[in-house]
# Entry
Amino acid sequence: MKQLSLVLTTLFILGCVAFNPARYSNSQLLSPFFRLHWSVDEPNDLIYLGLEANTTGWVGFGISESTSGSMPGSDILMAAVDATTQQATLFDRYAVGYIDPIPDSCQDWRLVSASESNSKTFVEVTRKLSVSSSEDRPFVAGDMQVIIAIGASDSLVYHGSTRHATVVKFFGPTINSNVNEKDTQLVSLRMNSVIPNQFTTYICQSFALPAVADGSIVRFDPIIDTGVSSTMAHHMLVHACEDNGPNSYVQQFQQAGECGSPVGNPFSGCKMIAFIWAVGTSALELPAGVGFRIGNATSYSISHLVIEFHYTNPSGLVGVSDKSGVDITWTPTVRPMDAGVMTLGDPLVSLPPIAPNLKVHEVETTCPSECTATWPHPVTVFSEFLHMHAVGARMLTNQFRNNSYLRTTNRIDFYSYGFQQLTHVDYEIQPGDRLNTHCLFDTTTRGSQTKFGIGSLDEMCMDFIFYYPVIEVPALNDTFNLCGYLNAGPGFGEVTICGNNNFALTIVPLPNPVVNDPIDRYPITFGITDPSLRCDNVAGSASSLSFFGGLFILIGLFF
# Structure
């Protein structure tokens, strides 16, 4: 069988039927202009999609990188229907940047039917769930990141604003919420901010949690204001804090006000981060039996939360108010395991600046075995959040045990600041393990150096890991929540922070990175063309149309 041509046209000569959404077992409105229908045949490794779009131009559907959700790193199907002949053209492509998607070496999608009527386009296709080519992404059980777009004409021109990214669960067992305690209660915390007419602003506001002796937070839901301020929302950190006097953030920010981050401030009274939101992030539901302890029963119990919101106002708008915040679900029934959060990488944003016009600038930091060896017990990590800013390009963290590579805990090969998320993970860190965090940056769009800091145009390299059971450090009256690089300034230089904000007790005189972990050991694998690939052997090369129960005669298919 010869290589499949770029443009695939299928003529339905017999048995052609009109689009019928009832043939599908699932349907989801992905945007006001796009509805997706699908059925999955797991025994035969097949998926059937019905694309229903409000356009007479082209339609696009893609599977994104699981840890991101943006166009770069996506496996993309594009289709257009001729209004006169009702014939469809399919394009199987992939994207490695914000550029025209690249044609796949092998065209795996199979056309089932297509039509255009009443200002709508309908396209039905099928493909195998699995893949054999690095230019494709598989359909897997559980939530998947997908992208959609439509064009105004059949020519594959730029989609403009008619695009969207979302989550679809194509198949897999239903995972019910474990937040089912009969006594759960909801607390709504909302900012009362007025955003200054300056490019970057950090605003903090403190909130008292219910005055109970003991309890557990079991879920966080970010609530982002739907007004103008939503376009200025950069990220939100929810800090676990206590009222330890007039310098504490609990007292200083009872009303919303401009602030520096409590991270790195030993007098702030804030012990750790409990929740993170950035563009693209959804809710955090803690695993069954796990919760953030509230009340006063332990040294790390949370009595107050401080919301730190980073706003970006590039247009200098005046008088914009914001009511964003978080909804917290908690229960007085204490869960058996207490959760904690630890920041790896460069937790206090003190890395050296990045020169301009660099295609690749790598930063590597270490949470060394000398730090984790002080832990009293292993921990299980259940969620992870990789965070950089606008020139971030790629990020990953590797775990080592006895100096041998164990796993990559989380990675984003096609980082996009507009698509950040808490990723569900499940792995154990044992005392003595080492964690190396890599951040790669692309400053080819910058004419001057980029410093690390809290500003919108500054950079960051942080990996937030959510874990249990919490590591309590009685000598610090705190939890173990910072581990990574620190430029401690004159007399100390580049060292390792190993514990919390109390620098006198948690600076370790180890250079950082402690052990080099060359990034070229972990190459990007998506979008790498294999010249030996035979298209008749790829996963999508054979399919069955029996799902629709009709007889289709396909003329000149894929030759």
